[in-house]
Design goal:
single chain; alpha+beta; 6-stranded mixed sheet; 26% strand
Length: 409
């Protein structure tokens, strides 16, 4: 029967869809459930790192991703109070480590569309929108989900379930898997504008700006084509309400204070979101596996969230295919959890927290120490390479591959 091999997937974002594509290409029947009415135009994640480009290349997606985005080999650190560039890193130094010595700035919704186009050619894959997974049960041989759609409920049975349903994952909660970590006190404000920070400020496509009062990330995305759009990301005052932070006056004041201009900024998009640093206690419980934000969430500085999720998808799909097609045992699924959870903690959590602390440091001595280390690292090819291997997530992928069991952690 089909359900003896079918994989159910909760969540039709890029991670869930990528799982569906990789499994579906192996001939495995897949059914994806997503609560939204269609693919979401969510612009939040945009940076695709070299390690993820390698994964997407294996799936034949990387050319389309590059065509839809902007190639960005360089990123910079600036100090706002002195308006000086502290350090510049060029991924070209990784030319012997990866086929892709650059990042690609491609918005998250474009990645979903690219994958969805491939899925439409697979008759063994179903993507059901307006279908929200509400309940999960499993036994020794199968997993069953209850799904709500247009006020009606239905049940669906499969061999395995992948929970890729986001940070508030119903699947994770239904399986009673703890989501360990903390929530940052301040929220992040994203303001998107066509103002050209490269031409007017000398910034590259990925720029991190340190400031003891208010740091900023500034990066460019392709949007609908030339000339593209620029996104700025700021921390917010915890004492202010959402209305106060998001008002026209407030967003203009924020941008004008940081980047003075003789006219109002054109704002084409604004968003305010709560930021977490959390990792699931396990990425596997029986026949249920977690991937993407349902398994781990982190602050956006460094762009590691969606990248980690797509790497999860590649890892779990490879192992699950072997189990279902008879080439491996359930121990592979435990290995998936061990590999991905370990690197989520050792790399994604550690790196993203360090990135935030570097930008927001207030003590003058600490700030100068940070700047000196960045400048020294950028100027030394060996140190720059090691720094970029971590920033590009190549070190993370190598670490995951090195884990063969509990004794190798």
């Amino acid at each position: 029967m089909q359900e003896d091999r079918r994989v159910l997937i909760a969540g039709g974002g890029p991670v869930g869809l990528f799982c569906a594509l990789l499994l579906g290409r192996q001939g495995i029947p897949v059914r994806v459930f997503d609560a939204n009415p269609d693919l979401q135009d969510d612009p939040r994640a945009a940076t695709t790192h070299p390690a993820t480009l390698e994964v997407l290349d294996e799936a034949g997606l990387v050319d389309d991703l590059i065509a839809a985005g902007l190639v960005a080999p360089i990123f910079q650190f600036w100090d706002r109070p002195t308006n000086t560039k502290v350090a510049e890193f060029d991924h070209a130094i990784l030319k012997d480590d990866t086929k892709f010595p650059f990042v690609v700035q491609t918005e998250q919704f474009k990645t979903s569309r690219i994958i969805m186009k491939r899925l439409l050619a697979l008759p063994n894959v179903e993507v059901l929108f307006n279908h929200a997974v509400t309940h999960v049960t499993q036994d020794a041989g199968s997993v069953t989900v209850t799904v709500e759609s247009h006020g009606k409920t239905s049940t669906h049975k499969g061999a395995y379930l992948i929970g890729a349903d986001g940070g508030r994952s119903t699947v994770r909660k239904q399986c009673e898997i703890a989501f360990e970590g903390f929530t940052w006190e301040e929220r992040f404000l994203v303001l998107t504008t066509p103002f050209d920070f490269a031409a007017n400020r000398g910034f590259c496509y990925r720029t991190y700006i340190a400031d003891p009062a208010e740091w900023c990330n500034c990066f460019k995305v392709a949007a609908d084509g030339p000339p593209g759009l620029w996104r700025t990301v700021f921390p917010t005052d915890t004492s202010l309400s959402e209305e106060q932070v998001m008002s026209d006056e407030a967003v203009q004041t924020r941008l004008q204070t940081f980047f003075p201009l003789d006219r109002p900024y054109e704002i084409v998009h604004r968003n305010l979101y709560t930021t977490h640093q959390r990792v699931a206690a396990t990425f596997r419980k029986g026949r249920v596996l977690l991937a993407g934000d349902s398994a781990h969430v982190n602050n956006s500085i460094g762009g590691m969230g969606l990248n980690g999720g797509l790497q999860d998808a590649a890892n779990v799909s490879e192992k699950l295919s072997k189990v279902i097609l008879g080439g491996g045992g359930d121990d592979l699924l435990e290995l998936y959890s061990l590999q991905r959870r370990t690197v989520s903690i050792e790399f994604v959590q550690a790196q993203s927290i360090a990135n935030k602390k570097r930008l927001e440091a207030r003590d003058a001595e600490t700030r100068q120490k940070n700047f000196a280390e960045l400048s020294e690292t950028a100027a030394d090819p060996a140190k720059a390479r090691e720094f970029l291997l971590k920033a590009s997530m190549i070190s993370m992928q190598r670490r995951a591959a090195s884990i063969t069991g509990p004794d190798s952690i």
